[in-house]
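User: Teach me something about this protein's shape.
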Amino acid sequence: MSTPKEQDFSLYQPLDYDGLVLMSEYFDAGGPGQNSLTASFYDLESNSFEKRILSRLYKDLDKISERTSYAILNKYEESLRPFIKIIRKLKERGLVKDVFIDHRRFNDSPAFSRIDITPSIDDTYNTDGRKIVRTFGHSSGQDLISMVSKSIGEFLERYYLTKYSRKNFVTNSYVDLNRRARALDPKKLVSFSEEQQNQSNRFAWTPEHRLHWVQGVRVSTGQKTMLPAQLIFWNYISGDIPEVFLREPNTNGSGGMFNREGAMLAGLYELIERDAFLIFWLNRISPPQIDISSLNKDLRSSILQVQRCRFKCHILNTTLDIGPPSFVAIILDESWVGPYLSMGGGCHANPEIAATKAYEEAWGVYYSLRSKKDSHPVYELADNYRPFGDPSLGQEERLHLWANPKMREHIAFFLEGHAQDIQKVRFDFPRSFATTRDELNFLVKRVESLGIGYEVYGFEVRDYFLNHELGYNVTQVVVPELVPLYLNETFAPLGASRLRTVLPKLGYQIKRKFNTFPHPFP
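Assistant: First, the predicted structure itself:
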């Protein structure tokens, strides 16, 4: 896997840990990109007396911050209070190093801002996994509340799913462990082809191989089940035993929310979203395209606006047999000023929400890549590139590969699907539920109805500060049969049976060969 690099925040505006340097007046006026992004107490105009008074509510924050705290100026104040409290606690606890906002505006593209939260990785940060130096939590968008919420949530997800100690693991082979405890059979998880296993013994699992295990649950029954630890922690290192890989350790399927059901639901939707994309991509199938004119007013207006700036935007329907609406959004910068291709994904019970999530994620990728353009040139495959065999092609290289305008020919097939009116598509899934618990139960039942290997398992982080002081839940969801996301080419799940079995159910022919070009998913 490629080694993550520390992100350059030299062009970002540092945010006060507690006040978050909340640019709420600016957002309240209509969104990013219209005027000055921040407003400190001393910068407020003389006629803003009430705002000056309001800003004094945060004067105590200056006492515990090394930077100037900023005024919360308008309707966002009450909504942001819980998040300010969380940021303060994370700072006091020593988990957060910095909070940044990137509010640079490119005149030839829509206005999005980005918030990044970086962890404090020092001697007090204890883990037996890799120490990750890059950002843990980030979000982009045009809505301040949503951005702050998402960045904190992602930070907590990723931070707590890096902290583990091998002394808390059970170490045993599946054969021996299953004699005294219920355990997930790794045979269901092995997604590498016979050829991949023959080429590398690190992929060749047998029931006698010893693995590290942690306790999880089967979500539908609550039954305790031992799960391979490498599926849970995205910075996983086996360390003391020569452990084989069952699949790539990454953040796929992690979720965080202020209730357990919401966290599990977020992780499960994410697994479904990535499974769907990879089935279309690896089989070289063109997903249906959503007619932009059929989208809701806000999303439609945004897309039409960016198209006037020489961008092309595609919303592709990747929904498969499980049912919940799943989409990927692809943004093409035809001016070639910025990265050529940026992609995002979204899965949700409500198709409009799913499509919007995909669209916003794609713009987040675009802005991230464009901000690095000068320091990170586009990536090109080596002349001797071997499909699914280049260990140097990781997430960062993949994104910069697809920033290259030469990728036009490689994405063309994916954009040839027939048009669909999103209002007329019959998604076999309810658009809404009375409670999050109802939604989770329905989705789990739907997934498990597909048969053996579709059992839904979950791991819950148990930490007093996280669960009780913050009131937050972080989980990792595992469904053996779903095609797992891979970011390093050598981990492509070419032996995943679902890549083949789902096609006839949807009216597609089974493909003889897989698409060998690296996928563009971020």
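Now, about its shape. The first strand starts at residue 13 and ends at 14. The first helix runs from residue 24 to 28. If you'd like, I can walk through any region in more detail.
User: That's plenty for now, thanks!
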